[in-house]
Amino acid sequence: MKKTAIAPANIALIKYWGKRDASLNLPLNSSFSMNLSELSTTTTIQFRQLKKDEISLDGHDATTEDRERVVRHLDRIRKIAGTSFRARVVSRNTFPTGVGIASSASGFAALTLAATRALGLRLSEKQLSLLARRGSGSACRSVPDGFVEWVVGKRDEDSYAFSLHPPDFWDIHDVVVLVSRRMKKVTSTEGHSLAPTSPFFQVRLRDIPRRLSLLKKALKEKDFSTFGRVVEEEALNMHAVMMTSSPPLLYWEPVTLKVMLLVFQMRDEGLQAYVTLDAGPTVHVICQANDAERLARKLRTVEGVIAVIDNKPGKGARVVEEHLF
Amino acid sequence: MKKTAIAPANIALIKYWGKRDASLNLPLNSSFSMNLSELSTTTTIQFRQLKKDEISLDGHDATTEDRERVVRHLDRIRKIAGTSFRARVVSRNTFPTGVGIASSASGFAALTLAATRALGLRLSEKQLSLLARRGSGSACRSVPDGFVEWVVGKRDEDSYAFSLHPPDFWDIHDVVVLVSRRMKKVTSTEGHSLAPTSPFFQVRLRDIPRRLSLLKKALKEKDFSTFGRVVEEEALNMHAVMMTSSPPLLYWEPVTLKVMLLVFQMRDEGLQAYVTLDAGPTVHVICQANDAERLARKLRTVEGVIAVIDNKPGKGARVVEEHLF
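ok -> structure tokens follow
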């Protein structure tokens, strides 16, 4: 059967950095994210008698590395369903590839949902989240709706993500500012393994529960300035850990910093906006709905900025009827 | 009597960040620096019967803030000498002001030496270093020659700097890259007081003795790659602490990062060069003598770079015969 699913990218507000089990993608800390309304992956899959999996990503055959990762994930799902059929997979992102948006979260969430449905499996949201996590850690957060917590858990079976609030709970935006077409030199996977080499990593880990509960409280109370301050503090904390790893990881580009400094300046002038960054040069500017358009307009004028994409809180992974093939 | 002294700026290789006593400028950790051959302050002073101190810095009357700081320091010296004479002070830097080179180290070292000599005091190098420290902490390191350690000490009388190696011990360079004319928004004095608000500060402090002894060993053995790695690690460590302070301190400009990334890239291509930064956007590129000219030439081509100044290890503070008035 042919099935198509769509899944959002998500921005981590409390970050996932450091794994306790690299093969299971078990994290060292709980994390928290918001799904993004405008950045998503759509994946259509059909299992058939084929010699090998046929995988097309954004109109091209997958690279060897991407292919292996997808096939490994399909193997997990085939094992659950008890089939040896190969699959035709066609996947498209709403955003340009290779500009610093990690597409593995939305990609593996969409693949997990589409593939399980195509094989007739009806997994619960929790089961889908657990399974997506095996493909790419942060993909587990792209399964539930809106504002999502990924609990660190104690073992494979209880490290999954769930929705804490639906997308319409709070109308805040993530204005995503793309600043680079370069592929990052150090992948997130390699980065995770370097995290514990920072002398600051253990302090970071110990402090995360406090920051996570601060963030959840500010979210519940819709206290935007506290929320924003925690979000920005968390991002700088992770990047401070990265930059003190051995070897040091510097994910920022000059334009990254230009955008950050501009946001700080606009905040000094009264606009409530806060920055966060994942393991890459893309800047995410978190702001209230009223300010998003003005902010996006201003950020588009910055020399070196490639694109600015204004996002609301988004839905999680869902099945859709329009197939890609 | 009229006396003139010259004192070098210094680049901290193990940084001074955080004070245990702000009025005495007593540090929380030992630090280590290299004096710079091409960046210095020359100061001429004459004590006379005047209504008030007349202070000219780089051809202009000192600002109120600078003036107060200089007068407070002159008062310390007048007290030691037992005089109430006011002074005429004329001071000049070899480098442009307001482009991100802290001139307080060279400035207070030169002032301390010139003023004590003009009042007929003959202080030892240790006494001069202790006294210069009262004017500006890092000024104590601009008193001795070459490669200098400032010991954290236990009290006022034993927190001073001394020369570990003369300037000609090792022919390494500091290629100073000026990238901004903007005055930094947060002064070092304010920054020092924020240091303990970083969750990482205590870890940094505990780790400094290890890093300092690694650096001194690499210096003694003239092991440049170890030396450079420690220097760069230390700089990123301090900036990670700064960026996780409350509020966060980001001293980098976009061009700062551009220069850093270029140095990393040149290193990937085989050039041994390492970066360090003080509490400002200026990048100091530490390299071996053979590579300095090529590096400086390349860095001058970077858009946004204001000036590149190639320094050797420099002498400490000394009296000279050529007066500024």
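The radius of gyration of chain B is 19 Å.
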